Amino acid sequence: MARILIVAGEASGDRLGGLLLQELKKEAPHHSFVGVGDKELEAQGVEILVRSHELDVVGGLEAVSRLPRLYYAYTMLKDLITSKEVDALLLIDYPGMNLRLAQLARSVGLPVIYYVSPQIWAWRPGRIKKIKRSVSFMMVILPFEEEIYRKAGVPVTYVGHPLIDIVKPQTDGRNFRKGYGLPLDRELVALLPGSRKQELDYLLEEMVETAAILARERGTAFVLPVAPTLSLEDVGERWSRLVKGRDINCVIMQGDTYSAVAAADAALVASGTATLETALLGTPQVLVYRVNPITYAVGKRLVRVKWLSLVNIILDAQVIPELIQSRAKVSLMVERVERLLEGEGRELRDRMARLRDILGPPGASNRAAAEVARFLEEKGL
To answer: What torsion do the CA atoms of 275, 301, 104, 143 make, to the nearest 10 degrees?
Structure first.
């Protein structure tokens, strides 16, 4: 029986980690886990030392306010590793901290499994040298990543994308609208401003202004599914302050995001995993992204890909419109959403349909769990 340190420093990692451990308990129920995560990992029996939402930030400058908490978390995990109170590491994405932990673990002889690769193909490709020195086994979820690691001599396997199994609405669009009192005969637009408070700070006001114009000019209705990492009450209060009494038919809800997005005719989506989830649901979308100007200027120099959206990267084409930084403004959001509602959405839907074939087949979490169980057994754990 091994005691394994698991580190998922973001909401998406907590969810994918929860799915992985759910399957791993079937393969190897004798292992125990401790580390960084949130509700999903906790539900699988992980002893949570630090909550993911306390460490999850966007950009470099935005991380400054979290430095004390980040330092506290790193110090605690460092002590666990150097004292060998754990037998192995299972790291999920979150490269800023996880690559440091991987190096530390290998220096004291602990094996390191990495699930969900850092985006070395997008920026800082030199990190692959650090990965080769410190990661024992890499499990990737995008098909083109496997060849990158094989060429670099990193033990790797492609397990498929876990979202293929979980991105499904719980109810159809008509029943969703009925259940929330949304009109059946009007356009519905989903607003997804992100899963972090900083994203709300940068994007929610523009989304409200966009909604006000579309509501006034087209009678459009809206749904705003709140991420589980945010407070429903806080988002509702922010929305009310920004609306300022204007007539916008918007349902703010939490708990069934996939049904909400699937019921919509179009969506405004903050950059991140949500863009891929929205595409897998077949809903035409516009990506929006804004951070601190200095963070953006630095990041722009480092990024090596043509697009921000994973959908565009995977399809290797400009499929989803991207409104980034200075272009993430109300007039362009209105224009792009209207174009989707007036016909462009149908073409976009057809092009996004290829994603499931590219990222499949189903069963990624099960395959990943089998790989983890095999690796631990080979290590005698």
So the answer is: 40
* Tens-digit pLDDT profile for residues 129-179: 999 999 999 999 998 899 999 999 999 999 999 999 999 999 999 999 999
In order of start, what are the domains of the chain with their CATH numbers?
A: 3-162+363-378 (3.40.50.2000), 173-359 (3.40.50.2000)
Average pLDDT over residues 319-343: 94
Q: To the nearest 10°, the Cα dihedral for 237, 241, 246, 251? A: -20
C-alpha gyration radius of the chain: 21
> What number is the average pLDDT over the span 32-55?
92
Q: Which residues lie across from 3 on neighbouring strands? A: 32
Cα-Cα-Cα-Cα dihedral sign, residues 142, 310, 24, 6: positive
Rounded Cα gap, residues 37 and 153, in angstroms: 30
Task: Mark out the alpha helices in 244-381 (DSSP H runs).
Answer: 257-263, 273-280, 293-302, 310-315, 330-339, 345-352, 354-359, 364-378
Give residue 154's identity as a one-letter amino acid code. V
- CA distance readout (Å), 123 to 19, 120, 128, 246, 305: 27, 5, 11, 42, 8
Residue 368 has pLDDT above 90, yes or no: yes
Please give the Cα distance from 312 to 370 (Å, whole number).
30
Distances (CA, A) of 248 to 169, 213, 215, 240: 25, 9, 6, 10
What digits encode the pLDDT tens for the residues 218-237? 999 999 999 988 999 999 99
d(CA 216, CA 115): 46
- Give the three-state DSSP class for 262: helix
The mean predicted confidence, pLDDT, of the chain is: 91
